[in-house]
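User: Run a structure prediction on this.
Assistant: Running it now.
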Amino acid sequence: MDAPQSILSIDDNEVDLIVHRRRIEKHDSNIDVSEARDGQAGLDLLATLAVPPDLILLDVNMPVLDGFGFLERAPGPLPPVILMLTSVFQDRDRDRALRYDAVRGWMLKPLGRDWPQQVADRLKSGRESPLWNAKV
């Protein structure tokens, strides 16, 4: 995947959404960033987009509909790259996420200053990389 031109950030934590937006915009102000506060709002927003985002940053634990509920209910093909976000890395969540081809890795919240390199590393590494097991 080339650098994303559009990102959908789905997270119930308003501070994380603000931090992610600022770090994305600081990296590249031309990236279109959309936000949703839970999985259902993310599904509703996806349904309105003419073109799906290049990348979805998807929180695992949210009220209303969590990240896995979002993955299970998403209609049609998902965008090609989804990175799961979590405050606490758990092997069982990783194993569950591996059922979805679009899920390409994990990142701890909030996005760090070096998030573009972290994303690039995960996208290049593939699903069998040790990065899946790392507590990054």
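Confidence is low (pLDDT under 50) at residues 130-136.
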